[in-house]
Amino acid sequence: MSRTKKPLPILENVTITDVAAEGKSLARVNDMVVFVPWTVPGDVVDLQVRRKKHSFMEAEVIRFIKYSNVRATPFCQHFGVCGGCKWQNLPYEEQLKNKQKQVHDQLTRIGKVELPEFRPILGSVKTQAYRNKLDFGCANKRYLTKQEIATLPNDESQSLKDIPAIGFHITGAFDKILPIEKCWLMDDLHNQIRNEIRDYAMKNGLSFFDLRQQKGLLRDVIIRNSNTGEWMVIIQFHYDETGGEKEALGLLQHIADKFSNISALLYLNNQKCNDTIGDQEILVFKGNDHIFETMEDLKFKVGPKSFYQTNTEQAYHLYCVARELANLKGDELVYDLYTGTGTIANFVAKKARKVIGIEYVPEAIEDAKINSEVNHIDNTLFYAGDMKDILTDDFIAEHGRPDVIITDPPRAGMHPDVVKTILRAAPKRIVYVSCNPATQARDLQDLDEAYKVAAVQPVDMFPHTPHVENVVLLEQR
After folding, report:
1. Which residues contact 448 (CB under 8 A, 6 or more apart)?
2. What predicted TM-score, i.e. pTM, was given to this entire model?
3. Strand partners for 63
C-alpha cells in the first residue's frame, strides 16, 4: 500500500537574509535553510515549498509582502524565466560584494589553506552588451511561462506550444526553447540577426529542430563579435539527401544580403544527437573562417571552435592581473596550461624567454600558432592534446623545467595527475586563473604541501550572474 505524500507547506512572512550559490537567495525558518530564486536580501515573502530535505528546503515566491531596499529593477523582459542573468534584481555594487564573499568562502571552506588578505574584486568595465558570443537553440516547440499557461485558455496554450522558437534552453524543458526577443548581453545587432533568421525561417516554412524526433532543418545559431568590429554567425542545420540543403542556402543568402557587416558567415550540417561542433566540419558561406580580437598591440585570431574569453574588455584586465602576478623579468621559461588560442601565452611572451602552451582542442592550437605569427612572436611553442597526457615528466625533461606556470583550466579544475606533475616540476611561481573558485580551492589544497597562496584577485567577467573569475598567485614554500 503506497503512502500518500504530505502536501508541502506554505511559509508566510519570511524575510530573505542572504545570497546563496547559483544565484539563489536564502532564508532561515525554524533553523531550516530555505533556498529561494529571484529574491534579494531584505525581501519579505510568502513561499511555497517545492522540495524538502533533512537540512534544507527549496521554495518559490507566491507573494511579495515587502520589497527590499537593496533591490534593482530588472531591465530585461525575459528576467525571471530565462535564467541567464539571475542577479539583475541586485544592484551591481551588491553583486560585487557577494562575488568577493563567494571567493573568500570557497577558498576558506574548501581549500582550508593559509590565505593572505584578498584584493578587492575588479568590477566589469561594462555591465550590459559585454559578451562577444551567444548561442541560441532552435526548437519546433516554444517554452510557455507559468504566467502564459495560467492566463491563456487551454486550446490557445497548446497552439502556442507548437510555434517554433529561437532562444535559450530552459532547465527542466530540454526539448523546448524560450523565445528571446531582446537579450542585453551583446551589441543589439545580434538581436537583429537572430530575429531576422527566425522571421525568414517562419515566413518561408523552414522546419525547426525536433529534439525528440531528431528531425528539422534549423538547429542552432551562434553569434560572435569582436572589438575590431567584425561579426561571425554560425548556423547549424540538420538536412540529408531527401532535402533541406537548398532551403538552408537560401536562408544563408538572405542573411548575407541583409547584414553586410557579417565578415564570417559559416554553417554546418550536424547529424549528431547533440549540438556540439568540436568534431564537425564548418563551411564558409561568405567571408572568412575567423574574426580578430585585439589586446594592447596584439591581434588574436578567433575561429568557430576557438575558446576566447567572452567579455573582451574584462579579459584584458584579467590577463593584466595574471601577467603582473607572474612577475616576469625576461629570462623565464613559462608553461601556459589550457592555453586556448594562446591568448595568455602571447600576451606574456615579450616578458619571458620562452612560453610553451598546451591545449586540448587542435584547432585552438593552430590558431595559437597563427596568433604568434601574426604578432611576430617567435618565442612560443604550442602542443595539442589532453593535458594529463601531454604534461608529463618526459615532456618537462625535453622542454625544460618551467620557472613559472600559468594555468587556466575549465570549470572542473585540474586533473590530479596534472597537479602531481606540476608539483614534480616545481616552478617558482604558479598563477592559477579560475572560472570556478570551488574547484580552484580543491586544487590549492593539493598544491599546499609545496606552495603558499601569496595573492588572491577576484575578477568579475559576468555581470548579473553569480559567476566569478579568480586569480591566485602561488609561491614555493
Report:
1. 111, 113
2. 0.91
3. 46
Known catalytic residue at 273: no
Nearest by Cα to 72 from 390, 463, 379: 463
Distance CA 454, CA 163 (A): 55
Is residue 143 within 8 Å of residue 176, measured between CB atoms?
A: yes
Tell me the per-residue pLDDT of 430-472, one tens digit each, with 9 for 90 and over.
999 999 999 999 999 999 999 999 999 999 999 999 999 999 9
Q: Are 368 and 342 in contact (CB under 8 A)?
A: yes
Contact 432, 443 (CB under 8 A): yes
The 3-class secondary structure across 161-182, one letter per residue, is: HCCCEEEEEECCEEEEEEECCC
- Give the single-character DSSP code of 71: -
> Alpha carbon 74 to chain centroid distance?
21
Do 186 and 128 meet the contact criterion of CB atoms below 8 Å apart? no
Of the candidates 76, 82, 183, 435, the residue annotated as catalytic is: 435
Percent of the chain with pLDDT over 90: 82
What count of Cα atoms within 13 Å lies in the side-chain half-sphere of residue 49? Answer: 19
Q: For residue 23, give the C-alpha cell.
A: 544565484
Per-residue pLDDT for 156 more than 80?
no
